[in-house]
Specification:
By secondary structure, the protein is mostly helical. It has seven helices and no strands. The model has no long low-confidence stretch (mean pLDDT about 90).
Length: about 150
Amino acid sequence: MTVYDSLSIVDQFEERTDNRTAVKRACDVMLRYLMELKRPLPDVAAQSIKIAREYCAGSRGIQSLHDEDKRISNFLRNASARSNGTVSVVRATGALVRLLQEPTWGGGASEALSNFLNWVDEFEQDHTMFKRLLEGAFNSPHEQDC
């Protein structure tokens, strides 16, 4: 069984609730996963994660996410093709920032998580941790979503 098979719990949750609620929980998984990676994040991603955490905690407004989205876009526009997954993890961080701004995804929250994981896997891979975060977010009551 692959980590992608584990995403079925996201689909089941989304069927019981709705897309917006599922995407908010997916954002929580994305944020926690990025925060728990062992390898240091590129500066632009680390700054965006800090802003995302503060937004989820209520100490930042949505404008800060818009600003981060622009900053990430500028970084990606100017980035050369770098090895070591730097560009891909910044793309994953950008996806998180955009989903926090508008927590919906036409393909479902599991597709958003799948895309995110594909990008992050080029930087660092910890599928055991990802599965643990999925189970925690989608199999149990959650007091607060981002």
